């Protein structure tokens, strides 16, 4: 995921999926071993006709990563694998922030000293023409595409990939929740087989379930194995970690400017069609 999906794919917002764009000099896919050759049809999908149908289906899904792939990834990795993936993804994004930070500093030094943000009254074409004229020399920067824009794309792909994983995790958790037994009478907690078995063993040993370590561990294990709550979010935790990593560079990136750079208040700005 970190070596192929983030650097070599582009996110299509309309279809909400990652798709491999045309090859460039800095987006070469990693080398992989060839798939094993299977001579007997029964080792694939049963018959020659079924193999052809599945091959057509796979060809439609080739070169993209969508919600179905994310859901399958969550189910295959499980809780332990997802924790490792999120840890690796968070560390990878922090490294990208440091790389992008060095490029931001270089671009800030190359910016003309008298450059100011143009007013929105000039429109899109006017603002673009202003920056095109001011940054004509900056366009010749050797690593503008291969370094700055490519690493910014990797950074954005990481956040979008995390959002896709979050939706898939919630979907898998909902399926697990629907498979659980219904709640007890009057909204009481549903019966859990592991807890009932532990309580039965404790009573057989002459202990009360409330005083049994076995019953306590059974309830703790049931709580850990429970599906995620609807309010749980993978995205919020990683974004909070990235915000802490970005805090030392925030003032340098802003360059002394505040969040509002246009002197005209938004309420008094004329509407542009």
Write a concise synopsis of the structure shown:
With 273 residues, the chain is mostly helical. The protein contains eight helices and three strands. It has helices at 5-8, 48-61, 67-110, 123-134, 144-178, 193-204, 213-224, 234-254, and strands at 10-12, 17-19, 64-65.
> Taking all residues together, what is the mean pLDDT?
75
Helix content: 55-70%
Integer-rounded radius of gyration: 27 Å
In what order do the strands lie side by side in the largest sheet? 1-2-3
Low-confidence stretches: 182-188, 261-273
Secondary-structure class: mainly alpha
Strand content: under 5%
SS field, number of helical segments: 8
In sequence order, what are the helices and strands, one letter per element?
HEEHEHHHHHH
Major sheet characteristics: 3 strands, antiparallel
**CA-based shape:** extended
- N-to-C span: 41 Å
Q: Count the beta strands.
A: 3
Structural notes for this entry:
This protein is mostly helical and 273 residues long. The chain has a domain at 5-29 and 47-114 and 143-178 and 209-255. It contains 8 helices and 3 strands; from the N terminus they run H-E-E-H-E-H-H-H-H-H-H. The chain has helices at 5-8, 48-61, 67-110, 123-134, 144-178, 193-204, 213-224, 234-254; strands at residues 10-12, 17-19, 64-65. A 3-stranded antiparallel β-sheet has the order 1-2-3. Strand 1 and strand 2 (17-19) form a beta hairpin. Helix 3 (67-110) packs parallel to helix 8 (234-254) and helix 6 packs antiparallel against helix 7. It is extended, with a radius of gyration of 27 Å. 9% of the residues are buried.
